[in-house]
Write a structure and sequence with these properties.
The protein is elongated. It has 10 helices and 6 strands; from the N terminus they run E-H-H-H-H-H-E-H-E-H-H-E-H-E-E-H. The chain has about 210 residues and is α/β, with parallel strands linked by helices. The protein has 2 domains: about 140 residues, Rossmann fold (3-Layer(aba) Sandwich); about 70 residues. A 6-stranded parallel sheet has the order 3-2-1-4-5-6, sandwiched between helices. Bound molecules: magnesium ion. Magnesium ion (MG) binds next to loops.
Length: about 210
Amino acid sequence: MPLLLLDLDNTLLDRDGPFRAWGEAFLAGIGAPPADIDWLLSVDADGLTDRWDVADAIRDRYGLRVPSIDLVDELHDGVMAKTRLDPLVACALRIADDAGWVPVVVTNGVVRQQEAKIRRTGLDRYVADWVISEEAGVSKPNPRIFALAAQRVRMPLRGAWVVGDSPEADIGGASAAGLPSVWLHRGRRWSDTRFAPTRTVDGLIAAVATVLAG
Ligand SMILES: [Mg+2]
C-alpha cells in the first residue's frame, strides 16, 4: 500500500482559473483596465504571495479605502466560490485508491483556507488525509512534511510518489526526500538543474495513470 502524496493548488484543484475569474470580475467592478489582470496574476504568484500583501498591493495601486481585511475576505470567498473538484480528478483518485494507493494531500498554506477548499469541494471524500504547512510547522520543499504525511496515515514513506506543479516545492521536496515525482508542467519547461522530476505530464489524471503504470 504505497502513498500518493499530492499537492493541492493547481494539482488536485485548479486555482489559476478561479483566481483569474475572480480577478477579472473584481477589476471590472472597480473600473480598472481589463489588462490589469496580468499585474494581479503576477502579484498573486500562483497564491505564493501572502493574502494580506496581495490586498495591500491592490489598495495601493487603485487608492482603495476598503480595509485590507475586507479585501482578503473578498479574495478568499471569491476564489473559493469558483473552485470545483473536477469529476475526472475524483475518478482518478478513486481508481488509485482501488489499486491500493493511499492519496494524501500535502500543501503549503493557511489551514483555514486550504481545509475549506478540501472540504467544500468534496475532495475530503477522495483522500485519506491532508497535511497543511501552517499546522505542520514545516513547508515543502522541506522533506519533513512528507514524513509527517506518512505518519498521519501510519504508513511508511518508502515507495511513495510525489505529484505536484511546483518545481521548487513539490519536485525539489521529493528530491530532498529521495522520492520519485511527477511534475504537472502547465505549459512550462523544466529548467532547474539541481533536480528533475521522474516523470512530466500535463495534468493530474495523467499523473495518476503514470504512477499506477509503475
Ligand atoms: Mg501547486
